[in-house]
């Protein structure tokens, strides 16, 4: 890559060795709260508990099969960003700051942004959110883009700080939960879940929290079913570099799925491109050089049929046939005129000739292209006897709105506040009736409503029906001409 961070001095946090390899013995340990899953949601919950004096006398365990100590000491690459990023809303940024996580980020790798341009290929409608008027201070923005590893490392560093004095947390790294069963050793705790770890250790939990992802073992133990469907689409991500500095987020709705480029510092950007499975499979075979062209074209071509024509020109292995001048084919469709062999305008100049679309992508970080299947899932309920589900263990949604992790953080906020009230009132934190049912009431319908809205939005923008297309154009134009309405949308979803 041409752009590097050689002039940036990254801080290297001094790490205490707070992760202990769990002893391999046959004794069973009792915990008030056991969190299964040390990812962002699980470690954020651990920080929420650790940053509050209310839980200082509660014993907590965090379990994950990954080497969390190594992850906490993440050493970021100097010349590029990672391809997996998360959008953090302004409201959740303030919350992460309040529990100590934000202080441990590599701030120079975090990109705040307040300008978003959304376009629709079929109707050619445009919707622009310029939310700089909503900035609360220089340190607060409606949205932030953060690398997954940066945020997870900060979460784990904060866990170390929050629990360094109280010593009331045990972190079981490199430890897989082999099975979970009901403990029936004595009448006093016979309904506490009993966890058996791969190192031979057994844990009993007054409250078991599953933050262990879409294939949650905790959810299976609680016998909670899920509903939903596969989109028959893949999310494709990559780390890109623009030809100029940019702090605007761009999203375009294509009939085959939305494409977005989200700004990162120093002219870098994160690509999130949802597309039908057949298109994804073919683009996987395309060289980085031609993949960059398809990204630029996806934002600029007026007709999806032109995009598909160019894609179908390629050989089955993704290469360009010898008899095809691919740049000429692209340029002709951009200009919608016969290509002039004597024209001085080349493809690069044509791609840069626009203010409605993102700057031209000129590079892609090596080996940064990845894809993953897109699904919608929601658990029948977010709780069972002494069990609570948080984040992807409870719900997943299409990434077009960038709300997946934000809903998980909202789960953490809700559950930690309800647990705090339970402790202060002397209630059993694992009580189904007085604690967990309240959490389910707060979070289930909120998540279900957001999932439904995003799914309907995805279906609305896939349609190429002229009537639906005109409806989209009128709706986007109406919103775009009322700044107060646009600002209210941002305030309700981000601030």
Automatic annotation (TrEMBL):
Q: Which residues form the FAD-binding domain?
A: 31-284, 360-443
The membrane-spanning stretches of this chain are none
Instruction: Enumerate the InterPro entries for this protein.
Output: FAD-bd, FAD/NAD-bd_sf, Ubi_Hdrlase_CS, UbiH/COQ6, UbiH/COQ6_monooxygenase, UbQ_mOase_COQ6
What does the record give as cofactor? FAD
E.C. numbers:
1.14.15.45, 1.14.15.46
Matches recorded under Pfam families: FAD_binding_3
- Which GO terms of the molecular function aspect are on file? 2-methoxy-6-polyprenolphenol 4-hydroxylase activity; 4-hydroxy-3-all-trans-polyprenylbenzoate oxygenase activity; FAD binding; oxidoreductase activity, acting on paired donors, with incorporation or reduction of molecular oxygen, reduced flavin or flavoprotein as one donor, and incorporation of one atom of oxygen
Q: What does the entry list under GO cellular component?
A: extrinsic component of mitochondrial inner membrane
| Keyword annotations from UniProtKB, A to Z | FAD, Flavoprotein, Membrane, Mitochondrion, Mitochondrion inner membrane, Monooxygenase, Oxidoreductase, Ubiquinone, Ubiquinone biosynthesis
Q: Where, subcellularly, is it found?
A: Mitochondrion inner membrane
Q: Which reaction does it catalyse?
A: a 4-hydroxy-3-(all-trans-polyprenyl)benzoate + 2 reduced [2Fe-2S]-[ferredoxin] + O2 + 2 H(+) = a 3,4-dihydroxy-5-(all-trans-polyprenyl)benzoate + 2 oxidized [2Fe-2S]-[ferredoxin] + H2O; a 2-methoxy-6-(all-trans-polyprenyl)phenol + 2 reduced [2Fe-2S]-[ferredoxin] + O2 + 2 H(+) = a 2-methoxy-6-(all-trans-polyprenyl)benzene-1,4-diol + 2 oxidized [2Fe-2S]-[ferredoxin] + H2O
Q: Which SUPFAM superfamilies match?
A: FAD/NAD(P)-binding domain (SSF51905)
Instruction: Name the HAMAP family on file.
Output: COQ6_monooxygenase
How does this protein assemble? Component of a multi-subunit COQ enzyme complex, composed of at least COQ3, COQ4, COQ5, COQ6, COQ7 and COQ9.
Q: What does this protein do?
A: FAD-dependent monooxygenase required for two non-consecutive steps during ubiquinone biosynthesis. Required for the C5-ring hydroxylation during ubiquinone biosynthesis by catalyzing the hydroxylation of 4-hydroxy-3-(all-trans-polyprenyl)benzoic acid to 3,4-dihydroxy-5-(all-trans-polyprenyl)benzoic acid. Also acts downstream of coq4, for the C1-hydroxylation during ubiquinone biosynthesis by catalyzing the hydroxylation of 2-methoxy-6-(all-trans-polyprenyl)phenol to 2-methoxy-6-(all-trans-polyprenyl)benzene-1,4-diol.
**Could you identify this protein by its name?**
Ubiquinone biosynthesis monooxygenase COQ6, mitochondrial
């Amino acid at each position: 890559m041409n752009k590097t961070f050689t002039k940036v001095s990254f801080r290297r946090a001094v790490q205490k060795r707070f992760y202990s390899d769990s002893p391999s013995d046959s004794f069973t340990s009792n915990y008030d709260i056991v969190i299964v899953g040390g990812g962002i949601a699980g470690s954020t919950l651990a920080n929420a508990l650790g940053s509050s004096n209310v839980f200082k006398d509660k014993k907590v365990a965090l379990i994950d099969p990954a080497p969390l100590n190594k992850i906490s000491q993440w050493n970021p690459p100097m010349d590029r960003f990672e391809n997996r990023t998360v959008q953090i809303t302004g409201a959740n940024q303030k919350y992460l700051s309040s529990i100590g996580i934000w202080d441990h980020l590599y701030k120079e790798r975090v990109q705040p942004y307040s300008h978003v341009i959304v376009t629709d290929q079929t109707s050619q409608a445009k919707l622009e959110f310029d939310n700089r008027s909503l900035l609360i201070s220089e340190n607060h923005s409606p949205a932030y883009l953060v690398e997954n590893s940066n945020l997870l490392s900060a979460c784990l560093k904060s866990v170390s700080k929050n629990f360094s004095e109280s010593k009331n947390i045990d972190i079981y790294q490199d430890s897989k939960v082999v099975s979970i069963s009901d403990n029936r050793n004595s009448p006093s705790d016979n309904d506490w879940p009993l966890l058996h770890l791969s190192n031979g250790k057994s844990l009993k939990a007054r409250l078991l929290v599953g933050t262990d992802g879409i294939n949650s073992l905790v959810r299976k133990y609680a016998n909670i079913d899920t509903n939903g469907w596969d989109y028959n689409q893949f999310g494709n991500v990559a780390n890109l570099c623009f030809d100029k500095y940019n702090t605007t987020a761009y999203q375009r709705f294509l009939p085959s799925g939305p494409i977005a480029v989200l700004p990162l510092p120093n002219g870098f950007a994160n690509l999130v491109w949802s597309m039908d499975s057949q298109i994804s499979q073919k683009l996987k075979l395309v060289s980085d050089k031609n993949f960059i062209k398809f990204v630029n074209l996806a934002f600029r071509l007026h007709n999806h049929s032109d995009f598909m024509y160019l894609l179908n020109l390629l050989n089955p292995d993704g290469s360009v046939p010898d008899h095809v001048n691919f740049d000429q084919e692209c340029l002709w469709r951009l200009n919608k005129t016969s290509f002039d062999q004597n024209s001085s305008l080349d493809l690069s100049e044509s791609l840069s000739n626009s203010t409605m679309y993102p700057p031209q992508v000129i590079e892609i970080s090596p080996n940064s292209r990845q894809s993953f299947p897109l699904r919608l899932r929601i658990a029948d309920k977010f709780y069972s006897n002494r069990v609570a589900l948080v984040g992807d263990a409870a719900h997943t949604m299409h990434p077009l709105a960038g709300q997946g992790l934000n809903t998980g953080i909202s789960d953490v906020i809700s559950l930690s506040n309800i647990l705090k009230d339970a402790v202060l009132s002397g209630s059993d934190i694992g009580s189904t009736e007085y604690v967990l049912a309240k959490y389910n009431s707060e979070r289930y319908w909120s998540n279900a409503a957001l999932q439904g809205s995003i799914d309907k939005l995805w279906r609305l923008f896939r349609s190429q029906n002229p009537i639906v297309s005109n409806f989209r154009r009128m709706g986007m134009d109406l919103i775009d001409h009322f700044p107060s309405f646009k600002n209210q949308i941002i305030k309700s979803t981000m601030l």
